Amino acid sequence: MSPERARQGTTALHDGGPAAGAGTTEQTPPAGRPGAPVPSVLSLPAPAVLAALESSPRGLTAAEAAARRARHGPNELPAASHGHVWRRLLAQFTDLFAVVLLVSSAITFLAYWLERPRDPATLQLALAILGVVLLNAAIGFAQEYSAERTAESLQAMVPHTCRVLRDGERRELSARDLVPGDVVVLEAGDAVPADCRLVEAQEAAVNNAALTGESDPVTRIAEPVPPGPPLEARNCVFMGTDLVAGTGKAVVLATGTATEFGRIFRLTAAAPRQRTPLQRQVAVMARRVAAVALATGALLFAVRVPSGQPFVDTFVFALGVMVALVPEGLPATLSVSLAIGVRRMARRQALVKQLLAVEALGSTSVICTDKTGTLTQAEMTVVQLWADGVPHAVSGVGYAPDGEVADPAPVRELLRTAALCSNARLVRTAGRDAWRVLGDTTEGALLVAAVKAGLDPAEEESRAPRVAEYPFDSERKLMSTVHRDGDGTYFACAKGAPLELLTRCEAVDRGDGRKPLTGAGRRGVIAAADGMAGRGLRVLAVARRQVSGPRPPISDVESELTLLGLAGMYDPPRPEVRDAVDACRRAGIRIVMVTGDHPLTAEAVARRVGIVRETAPAVATGTELDAMDDSGLDALLTGARELLLCRVTPEHKMRVVTALQRRGEVVAVTGDGANDAPALKHADIGVAMGASGTDVAREAAVMVLLDDSFASITTAVGLGRSVYRNIRKFLIYLFSHNIAELVPILAATFTGFPLVPITAVQILAIDLGSDVLPALALGAEPMEPDVMTSPPRPRRERLFSTAVMGRILFLGGIQALGVCAVFFWHVHASGIPYADFTRDTPVYREAITMVQAGIVVSQFFNALAVRTDRQSVFRAGLLSNPWLLAAGFFGIGLMAAISYAPPLQAVFRTAPLAPADWAVLAAFGALLLAAEELRKWTLRRRSPAPKGGRP
């Protein structure tokens, strides 16, 4: 969307209110609903903005916020309309298969009214076709409605919170509870929850792509700007945009539909969804099947008309055959299978936002994972401090400030400086976890250590209030803040990666004063940092210096620093990760750790969780990646079996993903920060953290881990593979029986038999009774044990692969031979010439009943046969999918009713079968299962199951 278009109709922040500087809201209340006028706040200083919106630097009181919430409503956009129920039901009849069937039904009804005398069988066929359409429409509508409800409930599981000042306290609230006048605290990676005017900003930059279409970061300030179009105002941020750098505080101007994003949302909410590649592939298949069905019907019509058959009868027969070849239950079965996969993943803590992700998950071959929070528990705890060459142990685990610092006096200034240079907050909660951290977990660990040393971070901040901040970025690997001391002087605090910070230090605090940092001193610091990192600790260096004013240039703040010491913290691995890593190895999935941490720290964690087993894994830093050209990077990715990429930036991660995809890999990438968004979008599967991730990362990803655990990725990959296998299973099941229906008809036609071995009404009864429900049960088939012991599916493998088509022909051919045998055996055993057969001949009625029952019974055994690709179904367990057994027995029960119930005999022109007939059919079905078991056994003997083989 262009900026010009985005500005059309914008009134929420225009200068149509009180004059600039008036600082009053007497004429107009704050906005929060469509049409509510807003005073011009663009050109007001921060205090006047707060006054104009009847707020304060402490935010709103709880009582005032509640009153405004009742007046303006929740800060949310209306759910996209799904249309009236009747329209969504009618949409089920626009599918290609449904259209073909409806046209066929209409033509059959017309033929019935035109023929003289009227044949009730023609009417029965027309009604049967219409019944099939109605049944599948009902199934499709129910599935779609259920999927919508499921999607809404799953999206509600992803947190959408923001940090707000209420009664002077920083709180974490649901974004929907924001009201005009609230003071919001923003940090890099946050999604802006409402339209706001900044009142504080430190190096803030936003991505306005959601509003303007321009993705380049735009700087934002808190100072007044001249009145003008709001989207061009540098002191405003808007709902739906992202803070990509810096920090700030902003007062809410508009919420919900009164926001700029709300206006655009109303224009775009009804935009149609794009179909996934799988849906497009199935649509192509549907067109091809419809073409084959039409061609087959035309061929049979052309062959039978010259034989003297009545024209209308022949036309209705050909039409019925064409309808019988249409797998009308396929679209609903496919959708249900995908929806079941999504629900299963959600139960395993993996929220899939797009059906496309279910496809790609099954072929994932490389997972690029970060470390903190994904492989580890994201509960950093400082366990060692280092100052003046002396280590100081820190006791206690987690965020509860229970424990102590050994000999705290020498490290108290180190911890005070680290606490001042942090944006996190340590808060007590009433739940099971008594303490939690709002903000970065590393900063939270430093705050906990400061409390253990006897410091009060809030009191220290009040004594030395922050006046400027230079936020962390992946280029500098540092964060710095400027504070005003009690005597009116200013000092800077800095923390960050030891090597980067050490290069900016010229002195070290020795306890008895500031001493020059010599070469030997630097080597000692590096050795201490490496020693901590070698133990698997994440190491931060802390430094400070005096500065001349409240906002010195960053080059002054981050130079000539005095090193105070090091802090080593530990984030324990998640207990379930090691098993998940082992599962990935067996599945042939390569794991590449991509982290910003020190190489020694990364390797220590990688060894604990099993990613690294070799003595000397390949380790490359961001600096080394910068020195590599594309061929060098390709060589690294190809040659290294175990690879750790450390001290990398988001640009490095993006480059690695591109290189892996260039080699044909299907790449899943994890990320939690705003700067991870490009790699998450570029990856085949972008995986964001649901608990600790930023809103930007969650928006960019196609899958969100609700528990942030790597194990959930492995589980989702297995479920994705299972879903793809299940789709292939019911495709084989559906299309193999079509062969069994078509071949007897062709055989009868070309051998000169005047009647059909199976009528169109019988075929439709098979489709209703023995196709849809078993296919749905196959779509819900449990995951096979070997799913995660096979290599990833090739990236370009299609659903109708050579192996799938071969299996369809194999199973369908066996069924076709069997039903042809029982039909012609009945016909020849009677001794009646072909020309003497009529539709009322008892032998003919018995024969077509045997054909229909033969297909139904063989489909029961066929469903058991296709449950596994290579494994014996007896090893998998015949009773492990009770829904499939129930669906199969339902189909056999329906067939028995068609054979024995007089009203159904009249409709289908069937005859009762003797127990011996059922025994023959059961033996025939068992033969099909035995043949498939023999094929699987031969396959296992000739080509043992391929192992993933990732060492």
Number of strands: 26
Shape: elongated
How much strand content do the residues show?
Answer: 15-25%
Radius of gyration: 35 Å
Largest sheet: 9 strands, mixed
Helix/strand structural class: alpha+beta
Tally of helical runs: 33
The mean pLDDT is 82
Question: Helix fraction?
Answer: 40-55%
Termini distance?
48 Å
State the low-pLDDT regions, or none. 1-39, 267-274
Description:
This protein is α+β, with helices and mostly antiparallel strands and 951 residues long. Helices cover 48% and strands 15% of the residues. Strands 10, 11, 14, 15, 16, 17, 18, 19 and 20 form a nine-stranded mixed β-sheet that branches. The protein has an eight-stranded mixed β-sheet with strand order 8-26-25-24-9-21-23-22, with helices on both faces. Strands 1, 2, 3, 4, 5, 6 and 7 form a seven-stranded antiparallel β-sheet that branches. A hairpin with a 2-residue loop joins strand 1 (161-166) and strand 2 (169-174). The longest helix has 42 residues, at 710-751. The protein is elongated and about 115 Å long. The two termini are 48 Å apart. The relative contact order is 0.08.
Primary descriptors:
eight-stranded mixed β-sheet; 951 residues; 33 helices; elongated; alpha+beta
